[in-house]
Specification:
alpha+beta; elongated
Length: 77
């Protein structure tokens, strides 16, 4: 399998291509301006849909102090 080799500026401009190749299981090699080379294996999977939030699912699991809305003391700052 052929590895794609890019400079860091090329990688910034071709992010979509990197993601597409990662989805196919290909590795990408990226070289920075100082000559450091990184081999990147991208794992790509579609985003999952968020589940519906249910109000009061865990009643009593969150508490706050009675002075929550009070001004902070001057010594705090």
């Amino acid at each position: 399998m052929t590895m794609t080799k890019l400079t860091i500026s090329e990688a910034q401009d071709r992010l979509q291509e990197i993601l597409d190749e990662g989805a196919k299981g290909k590795e990408i090699e990226i070289t920075t301006g100082d000559g450091t080379t990184y081999r990147v294996a991208v794992t790509v999977r579609p985003a999952t849909q968020r589940t519906e939030r249910i109000p009061d699912l865990h009643p009593g699991s969150f508490t706050r102090s009675d002075d929550f809305n009070e001004e902070l003391p001057e010594s705090f700052w």
